[in-house]
Amino acid sequence: MTPAAGKPFHPKRPHRKSRAGCRNCKTRKVKCDEGRPTCRTCTARNESCVYMAVSRRASPPSPPSPPSPASAASSPGKEPASTLVPIVARHAAAATVPQQPLFIPSGHSELDMRLLWFYSTVTYTSFSTGALQQRSVDVVLKVDVVQHAFANPFLMNCILGLSAQHINHLGLENMGISKSHEIYYRAMAFETYRKAVAAAEPATFPAMLATALLLCGLATHVFRGDEAVPLSIMDWMMLWKGIGAIIEVTKFPRLVKSGIARLIFRPEVDFDASSRCLPSYLLFMLSSIKEGDPEFPLVPRYYKALQYLGSLYRELRNGFSQMLLLRIVTFVTYLDKPFIENARERRPRALIILAHYLVFAKFRVKTCWWMEGMSDHEIPNISRFLGPEWAHLLRVPMAALLLDDDKDIARLLLDDPSWDVPTKMEDEPLTLDDERTLAIRAARGEDVTAGVDAYQDGKIGIC
């Protein structure tokens, strides 16, 4: 009897070739399951999975992506119909404008990827300082933080919410991000972060640290618009202290290994030199407290906060430098928890110190977009709360509200009408980074070809 005799005939099962497989599988000539971001074969072999670009004409139509955990079952409201935002390739030889996102990972929506693209192109720079060529922290913000975000939904929610807030702050209507999107992602960020803090899983500590930093920018909506709340700076300071709390429970080598540790750099403070730069009336505010006064035991605490404030005065004498920006942004992290508690108790001298810090936060040249409007909102609130009795110590903060020019604000702070920007800084470019500028222009639907040419010709400054 032949082998075929007595056996039913089975036609050969059709085989679908893996035309869009990863590079490793194609090299080995094995079938790739095309799993994203890593196929099963590369996962088993612990190899980096890289997919080659496939033309749209040759690719089969892909099914719509399911909503992501970060954006829940459905995004708020109906997602606006908008074209994908173009981005200028940074080192492209020609002025090509590929579309973003290039692909949508499983579990995420097109809206998620659009926001993630904007973060990795524009928003991340809000937490980085220094010349672009020297900013090693950018790799952490653009790569390490994003990698942790895909594994930790609370960090992804924070990134998407911050990006949505930034887009609306810039008025980029072409991005198709509504206010409801911003509110939704922000609410999800805080809710999922609270759950992560309650769980306190050691594996999530690096992502929690990155989230704690980004939340300080995300939470500034309370200083602007319809969502503004008086004296919100007290709660905002507690968010900053949350960074220290996470560091305390995390073994530092774990943070170093994760790549996140570079996000928590703070410049040193020369206390003696900073003390000499303080206005005399602020020092007198403390020296006038006599023994027996209820606040006399708090004098050392207030003086330490003034020394940190003095580092801002000292740095300002050197002009509007990147170091000044770094000191302004990180100022709250230096304040100890007892001082913050005194401020939350609405103690006058603590509020006066904060009011003077807010004058520095008013600078427009170097401060972050998420700090804009904070000073104009909170200085009047502090003044109204303290009343006429303390008005003489709020003269400078109140006068700063009437000024818009950075040079005039600096002269007010330094009490020097003749002060000017140091000559060595006159030629410092104060424009946005070339990549960020082009991305914003592209998001607005502007022609970016001229911008690419200017970048290639070296005409665009990097701040």
TrEMBL record:
Comp. bias (Basic residues): 9-23
Domain named Zn(2)-C6 fungal-type: residues: 21-51
Composition bias type Pro residues, residue spans: 60-69
Region (Disordered): 1-23, 56-81
Recorded GO MF terms: DNA-binding transcription factor activity, RNA polymerase II-specific; zinc ion binding
Presence of keyword Nucleus: yes
Pfam families: Fungal_trans_2, Zn_clus
Keyword annotations from UniProtKB, A to Z: Nucleus
Protein's name in the database: Zn(2)-C6 fungal-type domain-containing protein
